Give the backbone structure.
Amino acid sequence: MKNKSLTDTVNFLKKHNADRNMKFNSEGERINAKNDESQRKVKLSGVPVVVHSGEADEVKVRQRSSNNTAIKDAQLRKAVINSIIAKLLFSEITQGDALIQLRIQVLGFNQEKYAKLVNVSRKKLSDIENNRSNSSVEILNKVFKPFGLNVGLIPISPTVLKDVLEDYNNFTAYLPE
């Protein structure tokens, strides 16, 4: 995984307007809206949403799921999934943020519908998404299974992870198909 490929994915998402409600910087990180008020109304997908701030100068904007939130184009959906996984692997986003983005952008499900799909309580799902949960590996595997993900061990250092992935890609080039 190279920085160039992440940049290409971000540019692809911007070009195809994958998510009109989320803004990304050049590194693929989600940009939070700034505002002096502790709460305000935001119009997302035609639905007004009250957004509360943890601090006075930062407002955290969360996308609301609806029937038209999921990405319909298979190639774009795959690019979004890969981008989220890459950011998760390199610790650029938390598991909770990744789950929110995957649930809304890929499936277009609200918490209630997704909780039923994976057979966990909506409260537990909310706790995981808000990084308030100390969930078991079994629960985390349940909630990430629809996206082909499970909990595993990866190097802590992004540099080591990048080196391992590059070495693996170089090694597999010599393997017969």
Q: What stands out?
A: Strands lie at 23-24, 30-31, 39-44, 47-52. Residues 33-60 have pLDDT under 50 and may be disordered. Residues 84 and 98 are 6 Å apart (CA to CA).
